[in-house]
Write a structure and sequence with these properties.
Radius of gyration: 27 Å
Number of domains: 1
Structural class: alpha/beta
Strand order of the largest sheet: 3-2-1-4-5
Strand content: 5-15%
Mean pLDDT: 85
Order of helices and strands: HEEEHEHHHE
């Protein structure tokens, strides 16, 4: 009696289907992108440029020591108070004549910053500073800039600075993106992000 052989299965089409499925998932899957903090690390000592003269009142010193204690202008400060302190400094508008800030709403203290374009926030941290504490301080300082920019964007254009940036990234946004970019640059110029990070310090033993 002849032995019946099992029918062969053509697997060639299976490879094609698997390849098509792979392409489908690659095209349709959204890959989440983790964004870091937009910062430039301090340059090596040999590349540091000569110090530019900055008036003392236009410098806002923020320091994190090796045990994560926060000091602003050599005085201890709680993290939740940092944002308000930074806003007061950036928005002070104490300058006169060519340094006068017409849109600033601060106290106009002559002992504090003259103009947002002159105001510099200097951040110094210890090499032993906890990373979470460092990020928390960064977030508070960036929030201060964003709050001031949102205020002016709403006043000038009726939409917040944050929303303007969302619209710029939105591929379905129907507005004029070139004009939107110009507006974003204009608001950024009103409160330029001048955040200087000094070389980390080593704790003294």
């Amino acid at each position: 009696m002849a032995r019946r052989l099992a029918p062969e299965v053509n697997a060639g089409s299976m490879a094609d289907i698997a390849f098509l499925l792979l392409i489908f998932f690659l095209v349709s899957t959204t890959i989440e992108t983790d964004y870091g903090i937009s910062r430039r690390l301090p340059p090596p000592p040999e590349e540091i440029k000569p110090d530019v003269h900055v008036r003392e009142k236009n410098l806002f010193r923020v320091e994190l020591n090796q045990v994560n204690e926060l000091f602003v202008e050599k005085k201890p400060l709680r993290l939740k108070q940092l944002k308000a302190a930074a806003i007061d400094f950036l928005d002070n508008g104490g300058g006169v004549d060519t340094e006068y800030c017409s849109y600033c709403k601060g106290m106009r203290d002559p002992k504090s910053s003259d103009n947002p374009n002159k105001a510099i926030i200097s951040l110094i941290n210890s090499r032993e500073t906890n990373y979470e504490a460092y990020i928390a301080v960064q977030n508070e300082l960036i929030s201060a800039y964003n709050e001031l920019r949102n205020r002016e964007a709403l006043r000038v254009y009726g939409v917040s600075f944050t929303e303007m940036k969302v619209q710029l990234k939105d591929v379905n946004h129907s507005g004029d993106k070139s004009k939107l970019k110009e507006r974003i640059k204009e608001i950024q110029a009103m409160y330029p992000e001048k955040l200087s990070e000094a070389e980390p310090l080593t704790a003294e033993l």
